Amino acid sequence: MRSVYEIAKEIVAREGGYVNDPADPGGATNYGVTLATLRRLGLDLNRDGGVNARDLRLVSPEQAAEIYVSQYFKAPKLDQLPAALQAPVFDMQVNAGAHAIRILQELLGRMGHPVAVDGVLGPQTIAAAQAAARDPQLFVDAYGIARRNYYYDLADRRPASRKYATTRAGGKGGWILRAEAFISPRFHLSAAQHRARVAAWG
After folding, report:
1. Quick one: 95 and 60 in the same domain?
2. Which site from 21, 49, 111, 153 is most exposed, i.e. has the minimal number of CB atoms within 10 Å?
3. Cα(38)–Cα(93) distance, rounded to whole angstroms?
4. What domain range includes position 39?
5. Residuewise pLDDT in 10s, the chain (202 residues)
6. Quick one: 108 and 201 in the same domain?
7. Which one, of 142, 199, 145, 131, lies nearest residue 176 by Cα?
8. Quick one: 34 and 89 in the same domain?
9. Are residue 93 and residue 191 in the same domain, yes or no?
């Protein structure tokens, strides 16, 4: 089994380097780390007395991985989830914050394990996830499909985000590929199915 640091390094690779996309509500990021995260942690990397975009540009891949593990894996208690589910929820936690847990909580409710949908991984959600994980791979697939649906639904509501879900040529965008990286191939959408799902976007 991959260590949490190996998973973090894979996430860093997926996130890439410095990006400041006006369409991204999270603002500028470097290896996926936001300026808000740096400020919350008080990381004045250039020691000029403030935390700003210059510090964000100085974040290294190794620092990003450390931030992910401490703030997006350990802090939200993802280590208490079934082992098979930790990597996909961790990846989504980095990508979308508490929505990662909300997606899990909504899924658990549909599976007959109703829990509060509050984005917090407390004892109730942890116990429900353990109970629902009789077939770990199917559970992981179900979570990945729910995550993929979340991305499509978000892009339905927010046209500016559609470029993350589909390419200019009509293929699967980064969000969809990222979700499907954790889904068994038999549950991947075909190119035709993806195009049908996004056809209404024009």
Report:
1. no
2. 49
3. 16
4. 1-75
5. 678 899 899 999 988 899 998 888 778 899 999 999 999 999 999 999 999 999 999 999 999 999 999 999 999 999 999 999 999 999 999 999 999 999 999 999 999 999 999 999 999 999 999 999 999 999 999 999 999 999 999 999 999 999 999 999 999 999 999 999 999 999 999 999 999 999 999 8
6. yes
7. 145
8. no
9. yes
